[in-house]
């Protein structure tokens, strides 16, 4: 009888020990589950944060795209307007020529050295016959001869003069005279860049290169 009680007591202790182990295991699993839930909540919070940032980024991209479209459209209009202005400016200047190195004298038609008489002599030298013109010195008076702008009634008059001006170089009186078209600001900028490039390339190996303007 005593042995049976001992065995029962031993079994109860073993059951109690097993129960404690199970309880401890459940508690550990509970802690693990709690930690897992905490991590899951953290991950969910990060996902929500990323989702919000992504939404804000999309809105920002949409805003920038709309601004770019508006800006690009504005640039296109500005570019087209510049082209139109440039064409009008060139058309306005088409009847003009600019004469360089022409000695400046008193504007008096009776003065043989007046601008009007000198231009007429140059035109005669080129074997042309244009009498209707307007003359105007460019810039403020200085101790140097200012360029002279001559405006003719027809565009083809300026073409004829520009085409035949090389004949002046073989004369003794007008060899120093240079004549150009009345270029726009954009054309002058292009010519300036071409001269710089020409100088740069001539300083290299391309000594025989020239600028040819059509």
UniProtKB/TrEMBL annotation:
Keywords: Coiled coil
The keyword Coiled coil is annotated on this UniProt entry: yes
Superkingdom to which the source organism belongs: Eukaryota
Parts forming coiled coils: 33-67
Record protein name field: L1 transposable element RRM domain-containing protein
């Amino acid at each position: 009888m005593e042995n049976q009680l001992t065995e029962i007591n031993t079994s109860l202790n073993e059951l109690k020990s097993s129960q404690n182990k199970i309880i401890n295991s459940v508690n550990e699993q509970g802690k693990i589950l709690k930690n897992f839930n905490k991590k899951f909540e953290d991950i969910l919070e990060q996902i929500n944060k990323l989702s919000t940032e992504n939404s804000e980024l999309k809105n920002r991209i949409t805003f920038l795209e709309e601004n770019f479209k508006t800006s690009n459209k504005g640039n296109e209009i500005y570019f087209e307007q510049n082209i139109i202005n440039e064409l009008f400016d060139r058309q306005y200047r088409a009847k003009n020529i600019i004469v360089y190195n022409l000695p400046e004298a008193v504007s008096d038609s009776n003065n043989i050295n007046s601008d009007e008489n000198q231009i007429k002599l140059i035109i005669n030298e080129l074997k042309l016959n244009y009498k209707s013109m307007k003359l105007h010195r460019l810039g403020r008076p200085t101790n140097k001869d200012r360029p002279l702008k001559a405006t003719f009634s027809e565009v083809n008059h300026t073409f004829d003069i520009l085409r035949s001006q090389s004949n002046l170089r073989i004369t003794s009186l007008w060899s120093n005279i240079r004549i150009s078209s009345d270029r726009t600001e954009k054309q002058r900028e292009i010519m300036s860049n071409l001269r710089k490039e020409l100088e740069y390339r001539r300083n290299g190996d391309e000594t025989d290169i020239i600028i040819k303007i059509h």
